[in-house]
Amino acid sequence: MNPMTIFVTPKQRGYTLLEFAVVVVVVGVLAAVLLDRMAYYQVQAERVSLQTTVANLRSTLQIRLEQAKLPGGSLDLTMLAEENPFTWLKSKPVNYAGEYYSPSDAQIGAGNWCFDRSDKSVVYLLNNSETFSGPKTMRLKFKVKLLHLLNTSGAVGTGAGPVVGIDIEQVKA
């Protein structure tokens, strides 16, 4: 007989039903953990994407403000507050849906940005309501706000007085 021949006994033919059940349970637990982690990372990715877009809009706003302060530069800040901030970007985000008058959620689409011409605000429709804690709203609004000098002590706010700056703030949707 050849020494390389392997003898197979009836017990060595395959897995028992118990072994198969254990493997199925282990694979199920691993799949559940994987799906939970994927959902977590999707929420985190949406949060970072939203924060990055707002930061980009703020940066371009500050650049435009500083350009207006240069010699020979003239820019009416009140007009800047009326503009669509996405027009300031070199390239718009891939999830920018465009400009609308009082857009519905269906027009915007989940995970997309738009500019609402009716109240001059930037709107983002969340993919997941768990992206941010707090009120469970799916629509986030941001608006360009003028910063005014409030009094002689130099306090800055959004009230009356001369315009000293500009910023993008989140407003109630």
Automatic annotation (TrEMBL):
Instruction: Tell me if Ribosomal protein is a UniProt keyword of this record.
Output: no
**Name listed for the protein in its UniProt record:** Prepilin-type N-terminal cleavage/methylation domain-containing protein
Going by the UniProt record, its keywords in alphabetical order are:
Membrane, Transmembrane, Transmembrane helix
Q: Which InterPro entries match?
A: N_methyl_site (IPR012902), Pilin-like (IPR045584)
Q: One of this protein's Pfam families, by short name?
A: N_methyl
Quote the PROSITE patterns the UniProt record gives.
PROKAR_NTER_METHYL
Task: Provide the species name.
Answer: Duganella zoogloeoides
Please list every transmembrane segment annotated in the UniProt record, as residue ranges: 15-35
